[in-house]
Design brief:
It is built from 6 helices and no strands. It has about 130 residues and is mostly helical.
Length: about 130
């Protein structure tokens, strides 16, 4: 898990202690909802207002993942596919684009950590980008 830049021993340990058993989720995408990094929904008639995140799950782990996402989107972070995706999301977001991008990167980071934990793969920061440019 510490292969990702911005994920240190504290985040990795907190993640493992919170999730406990990685097999309890059928898909890695479910981890984002478990940690409360999904948007709340309140649809009524024709209105579908944009609400904040649901904030269920571990608040401490959610805070750590958001801090890691802030680092991933900063100028100090090395180039990666996750960083490029987050910066593109922040640039088209308007007034609250950066905030939404940070939460989205934190959610993706949680999903990626779960996937790496299950499969034991080695993390490639620029996965498939070299093949696409060639």
């Amino acid at each position: 898990m510490r292969q990702l830049k911005g994920v240190g021993p504290l985040i990795a340990l907190t993640y493992v202690r919170t999730i406990e058993d990685p097999a309890r989720f059928q898909r890695s995408r479910q981890v984002g909802s478990f940690l409360g990094l999904r948007l709340k929904q309140s649809e009524s008639g024709n209105s579908a207002p944009q609400l904040g995140i649901s904030k269920c799950g571990s608040g401490h782990l959610r805070w750590l993942l958001v801090q890691s996402a802030h680092y991933t989107l900063s100028r100090l972070a090395p180039d990666s596919r996750l960083r490029r995706w987050g910066l593109a999301l922040a640039s088209r977001g308007g007034k609250n684009g950066k905030r939404r991008a940070v939460v989205a990167v934190a959610r993706k980071l949680a999903v990626l950590l779960h996937h790496l934990w299950l499969t034991g793969e080695v993390y490639e920061p620029l996965y498939q980008t070299r093949a696409q440019t060639a």
